[in-house]
Amino acid sequence: MTGVTDLLREDLRGRQPYGAPQIDVPVRLNTNENSYPLPEPVVEALQRALAKELAGLNRYPDRDAVALRTDLAAYLGHGLTRDQVWAANGSNEVQQQLLQAFGGPGRTALGFTPSYSMHPLLAAGTGTGWVDGRRGAGFDLTPAEAAAQVRAHRPHLVFLCSPNNPTGTALPLPVLEAVLEEAPGLVVVDEAYAEFARAGTGSALALLADHPYLVVTRTMSKAFGFAGGRVGYLAAAPEVVAALQLVRLPYHLSSLTQAAARAALAHAGVLLGTVEAIKQQRDRLVTELRRRGATVADSDANFVLFGGLGDQRAVWQGLVERGVLVRDVGLAGWLRVTAGTPAETDAFLAALDQVWRPAPAPSSAAPPSAGSTAAGRGAGTLEAEASGAGGSQLRRKPG
Ligand code: PMP
């Protein structure tokens, strides 16, 4: 008799599942959650909304989540209506449904690494071929480079992420325009962190009206502080939303989820009240990390990628031992930290000061050589460079 692993699909054998460590330490800054608990008035509104649903749990929920999609369309603005909006259990599920409907065996999706690690995993799960697109030396992506890779691979889906996880930087609009111009299939812009973007950073939502292949995914997990509620959504042409009905499970969004999300959306102003405080901590992290000699790009998200660490695993471990959990995203020399409360920033910086000192120049040769996901960039010293509105990038110092 063969073992169960021999029965597994060949293309899934030996793969690793998504696995951000869930370690119970006092300061958890590793999954870009919102550190602030929901305010009491919102908790009470959720309790009332959920209570109303309880006796009716003998019935299936609204399969089409019409009321929730109407509320989400109103929140997004841009003249969007509910037939252009779709919701599921997190934007991960929305993206999985996109791959189920538009990808699949014999089809390919292209993303530009390093980016959100779930995109290739969702592709794998749906049997969609994954093309690891390249970025420039400092993780930057130019319109010409992006368009050339789309032209070369002609993928059925392109995944872009703005602000990009893990680098934190928003995608310059010309890159999106170049990809839209070239792409033969759907162009998915993952805007999970859009609410944290700095002033002047546009959303791909503004381009939807003119681009029927464009899909913008969003989530309530980050700015809304609703990660445990599991609600993600997308905006796209009505034809895209209609196509997803072919692959979504019936009644995929529970009555409780729909009611809770609607109650949360009704308090969007209060919930998004933490965004400014989080942006302040993010900017403080950028400043403080640079002051300590780390390589840091300006961030449009609620996290900061910092490099020049040498052995990032040792730094990560040292931080965990001091009760601070950050994220090792698999890039040699780099770690990612979520912006949380002022006290969490204090704790992170205090712990970092105990575990890491930059090597003195010029022998600070800890080469931020790219890790497995960013192979082939070679050695050199990276430094942060502001390059105009919303387009801060990392660039390689000569030598
Ligand atoms: N997109 C990006 C870029 C993310 O970082 C995350 C969460 N880590 C998600 C999507 C998924 O969020 P959720 O499924 O909670 O909506």
Write a structural description:
With 399 residues, this protein is of the alpha/beta class. It folds into two domains: 20-37 and 274-397, Aspartate Aminotransferase, domain 1, CATH 3.90.1150; 40-270, Type I PLP-dependent aspartate aminotransferase-like (Major domain) (Aspartate Aminotransferase, domain 2, 3-Layer(aba) Sandwich). It has helices at 4-7, 40-54, 66-76, 91-102, 118-125, 143-153, 173-182, 238-244, 255-266, 268-271, 275-291, 312-321, 342-355, and strands spanning 27-28, 85-88, 108-112, 129-133, 157-161, 186-190, 214-219, 232-235, 295-296, 303-307, 324-325, 335-338, 381-385, 393-397. Strands 2-8-7-6-5-3-4 form a seven-stranded mixed beta sheet, sandwiched between helices. It has a three-stranded antiparallel beta sheet with strand order 9-10-12, covered by helices on one side. The radius of gyration is 21 Å and the shape is globular. Residues 363-399 have low confidence and may be disordered. It binds 4'-deoxy-4'-aminopyridoxal-5'-phosphate (PMP).
